[in-house]
Task: inverse folding
């Protein structure tokens, strides 16, 4: 009997024997692979997992800003003027004296004149008195408010500048020979290269804040 089975196996075609071997091994391979059918690897790339876009918050965008000078209120009035006290513009002429660069006001009486920026709107281009190169020889500026005024290269010889307020002003290269600056406030005034021969200083607040009494009687 065994001899016949051996002869049958040995006489069987090779293909048939391979099929028999695979059939015998199939249960073992199925158990090793988790009991499922063996699948050939796919040549298609795995699909990427869908991504979730971050939630968008509806944040209102900032409104465009404009300068204060351009802003207006509901009535159309510029905000930098709304609610402020009406002020007069800086005068361009006092008596026969026309105020401006290079003017000739020799001997004029300008006592008590107010040429400070507070007189004009703070936003105005005429925020200070431009008196560069003006001829003010012998002029009377007693008690004048000249804050921020520019006297660059002005002729102030023998001028009466008693109790003037010239804080933050300019006297660069001004000619102050013989001028009386008694009681004047010159805090932060630019007096570089000013001519000071014979200038009277008495209770005068100098640019650095010190008080100069060198010319007091």
Result:
């Amino acid at each position: 009997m065994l001899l016949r089975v051996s002869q049958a196996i040995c006489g069987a075609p090779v293909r048939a024997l391979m099929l028999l071997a695979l059939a015998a091994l199939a249960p073992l391979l199925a158990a090793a692979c988790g009991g499922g059918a063996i699948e050939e690897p796919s040549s298609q790339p795995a699909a990427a997992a869908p991504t979730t876009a971050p939630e968008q918050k509806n944040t209102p965008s900032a409104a465009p800003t404009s300068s204060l000078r351009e802003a207006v209120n509901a009535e159309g009035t510029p905000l930098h003027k709304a609610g402020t006290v009406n002020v007069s513009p800086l005068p361009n002429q006092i008596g026969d004296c026309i105020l401006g660069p290079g003017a000739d006001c020799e001997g004029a009486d300008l006592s008590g004149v107010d040429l400070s920026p507070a007189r004009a709107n703070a936003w105005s281009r005429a925020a200070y008195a431009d008196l560069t190169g003006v001829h003010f020889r012998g002029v009377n500026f007693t008690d004048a408010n000249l804050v921020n005024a520019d006297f660059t290269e002005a002729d102030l010889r023998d001028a009466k500048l008693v109790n003037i307020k010239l804080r933050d002003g300019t006297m660069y290269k001004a000619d102050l020979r013989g001028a009386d600056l008694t009681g004047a406030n010159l805090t932060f005034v630019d007096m570089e290269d000013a001519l000071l021969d014979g200038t009277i200083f008495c209770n005068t607040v100098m640019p650095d804040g010190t008080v100069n009494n060198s010319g007091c009687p």
